[in-house]
Design a protein that fits this description.
Layout lengths: L1 E4 L2 E5 L6 E3 H7 L7 H29 L1 H29 L3 H9 L4 E3 L9 E12 L6 E4 L5 E8 L2 E8 L1
Antiparallel strand pairs: 1-2, 2-3, 4-5, 5-6, 5-7, 7-8
């Protein structure tokens, strides 16, 4: 038994009594899959998109570590200065002239030191000099004074600097 509707013909299977569409099967039966050119074009497009994605992500991932490293280095810089401050506080309680002794312990300007660091990390002493402030007029200016009662210490660790003032 055959029924014709539109462009498709339906045949009924006598055992199941269901229509079987033979027109649709005939139209799809000619396609045997993808051609070689379609596969090659798909692979080239996928490779280009993959390359762009890798370039974008690798730059972002490499830059994302910078804030973490800077925070670690800043924390380490503060710990060096805290060690210096603790040493000065101990000297202040025990020594007659703690500022002179501390200035010697800090080290000369523009030298690399490890005394106050942990694990032997090197830091640079940028400034280690006594200063005083001239308060004449409306502005206060800093001046180097070998007999000043304030010691200015600036240290640098991996591009980050920290300054602290120690007084008698």
């Amino acid at each position: 038994m055959s029924v014709q509707t539109g462009s498709f013909s339906h045949e009924y299977d006598n055992d199941r009594a269901l229509p079987v569409s033979t027109g649709f099967l005939r139209k799809c039966s000619g396609s045997g899959g993808f051609t070689l050119i379609e596969v090659i074009v798909s692979l080239v497009v996928a490779a280009l998109l993959g390359t762009l994605l890798v370039n974008f992500i690798s730059g972002t991932v490499a830059k994302s570590v910078q804030p973490v490293l800077q925070a670690q280095q800043g924390s380490y810089l503060y710990s060096i200065m805290e060690n210096m401050t603790a040493d000065y506080n101990n000297l202040f309680l025990a020594d007659d002239d703690p500022l002179d002794e501390f200035q010697d312990r800090v080290g000369d300007e523009d030298t690399t030191q490890t005394r106050y660091s942990e694990d032997g990390h090197e830091y640079t002493v940028v400034r280690n000099r006594r200063i005083s402030f001239d308060g004449a007029g409306t502005t206060v200016t800093e001046q180097t004074d070998s007999s000043g009662k304030i010691l200015k210490v600036t240290i640098n660790y991996r591009g980050l600097s920290l300054t602290s003032l120690f007084s008698e």
